[in-house]
Amino acid sequence: MSETTSIEKIRLLQKFQYEKVLKEDTKSKIVTLYGYIENKVALVLLEKTAFDLHCINLQEIPKYIQETRLVQNNDVFHWYLNTFLQSNDLPSLKTTLIWPAAENHIRKYSAQKRRMVRETPEMYLQIVKPFIETQRGPQIKWVKNILDHVAEAERIVLEDCDKKTGFLVLPDLKWDRQTMSSLNLMAIVHRDDLASIRDLTLEHLDLLENVRSRVLNDVPKKFPVHKNQLKLFVHYPPSYYHLHVHIMHVDHETGEGSSVGRAILLDDVIERLQSCKSGYAEKTLTYGIGEQHYLFNDLTNASD
Questions:
Q1: Cα dist. 191→125, 159, 196, 216, 244 in Å?
Q2: 225 and 174 within one domain
Q3: End-to-end CA, the chain
Q4: Which pLDDT tens digit goes with each residue over 52-91?
Q5: Is 174 annotated as a binding residue?
Q6: Given 244, 249, 252, 293, the catalytic residue
């Protein structure tokens, strides 16, 4: 990205006009704001950053604490609120801008209640599969841009270019690339005919085994982690409909992303294909779905 382009992108954020809060998550310390840039809807996600101990001289930690207010004390316990020294090396905030934001972005990042649904094979064919077709093509142009090296090419850390069993790995934008205990990578397959685990059959076993083998062998060469510190899993339903595998540090807790029902270990997917040629095509899948999801009413009504 050229310096001129970078400056233009920074100025975009400075044009943001706030209207309302879409969601506030005190656990992940993320707030999502709704507003406008140049009369087009924009979403801004503000996230507190993790401590980067490589940029802090721990022997001089009192120097980083600029202001201190005592909240309470009891016996040996003392609680304070502090202002911590900030700099370009110690940023306090990570910001994500989605602009122009579409309706599906607004739904995804809005606060919402959730319900569990049991998606039968029949429900998948009648309700979910037709919806998936509307979410392919232009809806995931950004994925094709990555696979074609049109965008984010400099972030790719591993790639296998085989048309059937190939994939590439790059850091998830949620990861700061500093804190190894929150390592978060994503493996995107090169094949464009696989939207989710529902499409997987015995034919695709080589692809999944290649992803598992290469990731466990090569990622520890790129980052200071051992292969047994990596958890590989897929989501169902996924956040976007082009098959991808999440690669995270085993100590990294991701909230909704690792919730029961949605996260399925890659080892379990591989074992399923080995024992059942049809894979997940004939399996009922239970998961939580938010009330803002386009299929919320159809799926919850069909499940009742």
A1: 22, 13, 12, 21, 10
A2: yes
A3: 51
A4: 777 777 788 888 888 889 999 989 888 888 888 777 777 7
A5: yes
A6: 244
Q: Give the structural domain span for 42.
A: 3-94
The residue to which tokens 């009648």 are assigned: 126
Binding site annotation covers 235? yes
Answer yes or no: do 126 and 266 share one domain: yes
Which residues are CB-contacts of 101 (< 8 A; sequence separation ≥ 6)?
40, 41, 42, 43
- Residues 172, 274 within the same domain: yes
Has 89 been labeled as part of a binding site?
A: no
| pLDDT one-digit tens code per residue, 175-232 | 888 889 899 999 999 999 999 999 999 999 999 999 999 999 999 999 999 999 999 9
Cis peptide before 91 (omega within 30 of 0): no
244 is catalytic: yes
The two three-digit tokens of residue 93, written as one number: 């905030």
Structure letter (DSSP) for residue 49 = P
pTM for this predicted structure: 0.83
Per-residue pLDDT of 137-152, as tens digits, reads: 888 999 999 999 999 9
